[in-house]
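WARN retry 2 of 3 for item q-0093 after timeout on previous attempt; input resubmitted unchanged.
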Amino acid sequence: MRRTSGHPRLLLEMLSAFELGLTSENLGSPSRDAMVMGIAFVGGSVIPLLPFLVLGVKPGLVAAMLLALGALFALGAVKARLSGRPALPSGLEVMLLG
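OK item q-0093 returned
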């Protein structure tokens, strides 16, 4: 530790590798990651707006809330399936916290 404390960059790399499991080899392309995040943000933002394109304001508001709750539940269920947890509790958790 004394040897690395004189080299802050080396110390940071070692701590991030051991404590967080992060290495520079595991990082992807920043431009690709930004594009994926942008597409995900636009896709998630469009979901509650769709009912307003088809319905009026009041029915669109109710439909948008129901559609958003359904999308949040589906997101939680997918998260559960990927992590090996039960879908119902995870879906309800994401839906209630979202």
